[in-house]
Amino acid sequence: MTSWKDRTAVxxxxxxxxxxxxxxxxxxxxxxxxxxKAPTEAEQAKALAPVxxxxxxxxxxxxxxxxxxxxxxxxxxxxxxxxQVCHNDSYLGxxxxxxxxxxxxxxxxxxxxxxxxxxxxxxxxxxxxxxxxLTQLKAEIAQGCDIIMSYPGSAxxxxxxxxxxxxxxxxFVAIDSPVTCPGALNVATNPYYRxxxxxxxxAGKLNGKGNVVIMNGQPGTANTVAEADGLREGxxxxxxxxxxxxxxxxxxxxxxxxxxxxxxxxxxxPVKAVFSTxxxxxxxxxxxQQSGRPLPIITEVTNLCSFLAYWKQNNLTANTFVQDxxxxxxxxxxxxxxxxxxxxxxxxxxxxxxxxxxxDNFNDYYDPSMTVQxxxxxxxxxxxxxxxxxxxxxxxxxxxPAKVNVVATN
Amino acid sequence: MNFPLSRQAAxxxxxxxxxxxxxxxxxxxxxxxxxxxSLLSLLLLSSLLGLASIGQTLTIxxxxxxxxxxxxxxxxxxxxxxxxxxxxxxxxxxxxxxAIALVIGLANGFASRHLQLNPLVVTLASGSIIFGxxxxxxxxxxxxxxxxxxxxxxxxxxxxxxxxxPGSVVLWLGIAAGILFLEHRTVLGRWIFSAGANPxxxxxxxxxxxxxxxxxxxxxxxxxxVTGILLAGFSGAADPxxxxxxxxxxVAAVVVGGTPLTGGRGGYERTIAGCLIVTELxxxxxxxxLDQAAQQIFLGFLIVLLVALYGREPHLSMRI
Lengths: 410, 320
Prior knowledge:
The complex is a heterodimer of chains A (410) and B (320). With 410 residues, chain A is an alpha/beta fold. Chain A has twelve helices and 14 strands. Chain A has helices spanning 4-31, 41-48, 95-113, 130-142, 159-167, 191-205, 222-235, 253-266, 281-290, 305-314, 325-340, 362-365; strands at 85-89, 122-125, 147-151, 171-175, 184-188, 209-216, 240-248, 273-276, 297-300, 318-321, 344-345, 349-351, 356-357, 395-396. In chain A, the strands form three sheets. A six-stranded parallel sheet of chain A has the order 2-1-3-4-5-12, sandwiched between helices. A six-stranded mixed sheet of chain A has the order 7-6-8-9-10-13, sandwiched between helices. In chain A, strand 8 (273-276), helix 9 (281-290) and strand 9 form a beta-alpha-beta unit. In chain A, helix 3 (95-113) runs parallel beside helix 11. Chain A is globular and about 65 Å long. Chain A starts with a helix and ends in a 14-residue tail after the last strand. The model of chain A is unreliable at 26-33 (pLDDT under 50). In chain B, 72% of the residues lie in helices and 0% in strands. Chain B has helices at residues 5-29, 36-61, 69-85, 90-113, 119-138, 148-153, 167-185, 187-197, 199-204, 209-235, 246-257, 268-287, 292-310. In chain B, helix 2 (36-61) packs parallel to helix 7 and helix 4 packs antiparallel against helix 10. The radius of gyration of chain B is 19 Å and the shape is globular. The model of chain B is unreliable at 1-5 (pLDDT under 50). The chains are: A alpha/beta (410), B mainly alpha (320). The interface between A and B is large, with 65 and 70 residues.
């Protein structure tokens, strides 16, 4: 017969275990963020009507990460120069974000040299705390910022600040992370399009037959869901291609390698291609090599020098998008200058395509000094992700925008 | 203090039996799994988790917790790549990293015991300070390099001289043997269990509590440092966040192995089984093709099931 002490201890043990399990279940529920409900074809056609025809191909699956609002700045007038340019960031802990800020500082200086802006960029960083980021945004509004560039930590968390900025004639530009708040201009790449494009490329390389694995980033994020669904759509027309695995490498090489080792240990069938969604291509390849498997086709979405070095070392069949933080910041700054020149954007969300590195242009980006430990981005000689003229089609009226030049931040 | 031997033995036999049975279950459900490469993958991943879990096990036994393990792993990982890449010899780099880890661990132990601060708060804070220092020092941009021998040490197809096992597995087994010796054959080992079983009684019996706490936290930081260095070889590059996943998995390995979170009981031998089980469960769920959400949910329920099966030993103070 057990004493009350024993029973108390057993109960406390159960409570600890159940708490632990409940935490995991909740985490699992969070991880299982499902794809958003797709609008009907009629709704999509209506939403995309104001998008310039030549750019519509980049808007597939737009509803995963944002919305399309026509003529968002119709009754809005920008402040006159010289402008105070500010940057509101949610995180500055990696080289992509560091390059983004360096680029914005350089562009602000260029505007200052033309007498169009104050020379110093005001920068805030909330380190992942969306409430702090909102507070910092409101402080920037109070400080007299005229243009607020931002990498927001949430699609909705800054809405009250963005509304306040809009009402005060302050331009808020979300860089590569669209918000769904009225009054913001979003300039971004489309993760669904990235997946779709890579899926089509893989299908072509595999001649319509073979097993594919997706190495996702973090579960539960809109980008992750959009990229994976885009890839599935990209290979959908090929019944011989099967997506046999969908793993989560957390954008961390060692985690991706562990997951891929486990996957390969439990899946003896051949894997012909892996879609890696950022910073995980090297770990994926190493897992194949250490499992004694032939290296698959590997596609990446970030142009890290380490991946190009690994690609060269192993003569991979691969490709990757080019998207460093510096050039991305420039790509968002150019449309901002259109708006500050009094031009009206046709839509609130500008999606742009990205250059791709393939076997054909590999040497334009690769440098022999790159190693698998390199943390730089292989941006090549032309730092423009798209020509400046790409943005012209999204604007009407106003004066010609101020000119700035993209600078190297690597 | 009179423990039925059968209960102690069961506490060890059950998780190890479960680990072996689980391997065969995976082999049954997943054709082609039962081969040498799969086994080596399992041992390699378990060795990394096993090393990271040493500190968590010992700190839990003394009644504490170490939330700074991921940060120390990240710091060690980054420092190794940076310093070795800058031309420092691997030996000196390792010595320097372990010295820094030692200081961190001693500080954690000192603050937790001498200043009577909650170890959860102390290690959470020190982890935060370490992460902040990494970001401030590197701005997220960590270059450097790692030697080829380190890559080979954590390669599934690597061997250790005539032993057909990756170096990290052999290292894990060696360190594990040392930890088991420490736990069961040394005075410090007895003090560790006494300190966790009943701190007040241990203190009155002359156990140097501050020294015990500082030693355990120092050991925790040292093995976390070793894990960070091995992970630099595993991924071939530095990443400050490389240890993040080890916060949850080390606790899971300790709990699943059967060491109670209430302290004073259990031991690293159980955590070894816990590491194998956690890695096997994760492999099984990946192998069955479950998505991340389903994996999390299943793993949660399996932990409850395992703890209910053999993790129900009451705290020592409840049984005297």
